[in-house]
Amino acid sequence: MTGSGGGAGELWLVRHGQTEWSRDGRHTSVTDLPLLPEGEEVARSLAPRLDRRFAQVLTSPRQRARRTAELAGHPGAEVDDDLVEWGYGDYEGVTTAEIRESVPGWSVWTHAVPGGEDATAVGARLDRVVARARAADGDTLVFAHGHSLRALAARWLGLPVSEGRLLRLDTATVSVLGHERDTPVVLRWNA
Fold first, then answer.
1. Which of 19, 37, 111, 151 has its CA 20 to 30 A from that of 70?
2. Where, in this chain's numbering, is substrate bound (predicted)?
């Protein structure tokens, strides 16, 4: 099933299942944590919802995303390095509350990330994912991370990466981006 109009298919987004750090609110980009047992269980429960034909299935290289893809019925997902999480640099493993003790009001969407990625770099790599999805002959399914998927949705909609701040995304959820006529839209979010 492709989106109505626009020519391109839909872009299905799945955030990985719960890890120790996602549960605890710790920023996790390069630290390659496994899913918790409950994260694996919820990832398995996604399989019936994702039991359909996709033109391409992509995943972040991190084990939490790859394992979610496998448990959700897509063990052959192709690794795409552009789907890694926002590089948190010095804030890896740190909570927002801890960061705000020294940088009041800090947010990944609006502030610098010392030693990490900026919004321009995140947007550039996620624009490549958008282009790849739009070039596919059908729907694309991706398995990735909270901030990167929120930023990906913003870029799909033609918005700055910072507007991903408006899209809450829980672990092990399915979201769908598509088109209404020729306009990129959100079809389903955080389901």
1. 151
2. 64
